[in-house]
Amino acid sequence: LDSIEGQPVALVWISGPGTLDAAVGSTASIGYSSAASLVTKLTPNIRSRVESMMVTPDGSDLVMVLTGVDANGPVEVRFGSAIGDDEQIAKLVRLERKLEDVGADPVSVIDVSTSEVTVL
Questions:
Q1: Which of 49, 73, 87, 108 has its CB 3.0 to 4.6 Å from that of 66, i.e. a possible disulfide?
Q2: Hey, which bits of the chain come out as E strands?
Q3: Closest CA to 64 of 8, 18, 110
Q4: Judging by DSSP bridges, how do beta strands 62-66 and 50-55 pair with one another?
Q5: Residue 12's closest CA among 66, 57, 79?
Q6: Per-residue pLDDT reduced to its tens digit, 59-80
Q7: Euclidean distance between CA atoms 25 and 95, whole angstroms
């Protein structure tokens, strides 16, 4: 995770509570680092729809906001913990499958934090 000037369009906006005032050369907290790691695992289908991500500094709660399909509003994806490569991949697989299932149906929330995916 690097501090850069401007806001390049190829990057995902990751935010959280409080201010992340990381000095150049310092290390971001586990939550922000894990969220950045998750971005590298996104499939093209999911990546093209990501508007932003919100994470707690300790990584215990991560929410991704996706654009809706057609005229539907944004979709909030609840990941729960953002820590761990295997868990991140498992949650992304659940999300990809659920996005295929719902298609263009109006959806506002998808919770992939557990093996039982919830859709609202």
A1: 49
A2: 14-15, 50-55, 62-66, 75-80, 109-111, 118-119
A3: 110
A4: antiparallel
A5: 66
A6: 999 999 999 887 788 999 999 9
A7: 34
**Distances from the Cα of 102 to the Cαs of 48, 96, 105, 109, 117, in angstroms?**
17, 10, 5, 11, 12
Query: CA 97 to CA 75: how far, in whole Å?
Result: 15
The residue type at 74: P
Whether the CB-CB separation of 18 and 57 falls below 8 Å is answered with: yes
Supply 73's token pair: 């509003």
pLDDT digits (tens, 9 = 90+) for 10-19: 678 889 886 5
Q: Which amino acid is at 91?
A: K
Question: Is the model's pTM score more than 0.70?
Answer: yes
User: Side chain identity at 81, as an amino acid letter?
Assistant: S
